[in-house]
Each structure stands twice: as C-alpha cells, then as structure tokens.
Write a structure and sequence with these properties.
- The complex is a heterodimer.
- Chain A is mostly beta strands.
- Chain A contains no helices and 11 strands.
- By secondary structure, chain B is mainly β.
- In chain B, a hairpin with a 6-residue loop joins strand 7 and strand 8.
- The N and C termini of chain B lie far apart (37 Å).
- The chains are: A mainly beta, B mainly beta.
Chain lengths: 108, 116
Amino acid sequence: RKEVEQDPGPFNVPEGATVAFNCTYSNSASQSFFWYRQDCRKEPKLLMSVYSSGNEDGRFTAQLNRASQYISLLIRDSKLSDSATYLCVVNDFNKFYFGSGTKLNVKP
Amino acid sequence: GAGVSQTPSNKVTEKGKYVELRCDPISGHTALYWYRQSLGQGPEFLIYFQGTGAADDSGLPNDRFFAVRPEGSVSTLKIQRTERGDSAVYLCASSQRVSSTTDTQYFGPGTRLTVL
C-alpha cells in the first residue's frame, strides 16, 4: 500500500471553474502535510502547507481531515496558469512521502 | 537569493559506469534530501542528511547508491555500476529544520540521468 494516494486525473476544466483534489495517507501519526505544484519538466515548488484548522491563500484552500486521513485542495476561479501537476506530500518523522500527483488542465 | 542548485542538469552514461551528482543547498539550510523521480510518479525519498551525517538512508535502493555531505553543505550522490533502471530525474531539496512540523523543502532543478 502506498503511503500517499492521489487520483492521477487529468482534471480538464474551463477557466473560471472551481476544482478540488483529494489525497489520502496511510500513517495516522504523520506530522505535517503540504501541497506542491510541479510544472512539466520542472522541480516541485511549495504551494501551501496544510493545517488542521484549514488554510486559505488567495484562490487556494487546503483542508486536513486527520480522522479520515485525507487532505484536500480547492482551487477557485481557475486560471490557465494553474495547469500543472499537484503533489500531495506527507511528513513522517523527517521522511517526506509524495503522491504520484494529480494533473490539472485549465482550458480557455 | 540563491536557491538549491544541482549539477549537471543532464547526464548520459553507459550501463556499468560510475556517476556523481552534485547538490548545493540553500545557504544555512541544515537538512538536505535526495529524491528520485520517474516519469508519471512523484519524487521517491532516497536519503536525508542533518548536517554532515546521513540521518536516514532507508530509501537508497541498494548498495550501488551512496551519498555524502562531508562539510554539511554540498552533497554528492554516487551511483556505481549504473543500470538502465537508474534512469530518472534525481532531485535534491534543502530545508532549515527549524521544526519537524513546519519544515518545508525547497527543491533544486534536478539532474536528468539517462543510462544507455
């Protein structure tokens, strides 16, 4: 069983749409959680950390549900520039486990 | 400021050869991580350094892989007797290690290794 599981997509959405991704993790003792964005043939870049209380950064909202062991990312008012792969990341005592990523295509 | 840098950006080698991949972390970052990313997959953890010592090398796939960080800054990932299955992008990341719960990593651009 993988430590972090994500739907690979792709999610094909029109500009302006709202889209949500989920990810599940296997270790209930995991300590911290993140969403990274990765563009084609580029390195992953931190999008946002995910806190138990939920957090928002502009059009992006992240939620953590420890009881169900899943993390979500909501993107509102999608832009063409949001097209990328979104990686869910879980920190287990200094080992970072990455999901395989969810691909988002935002179309005009 | 300067981010994480990795050299070379691309490396093509023949099966059986030895390769070294270099990572320069962000200045002042005490933690350094190596990952391997294959096409369509997320980065896979290889090894983590805290300072000069390898705090966790459980992700290294076998004894052909070895990494060092002798002065607590630059790190080198060494692969002996390369195999075609070693072809991947090797990513390095560094972090400040202020707290285990808020620690975030910053990635270098990666080295694309191709074993022919």
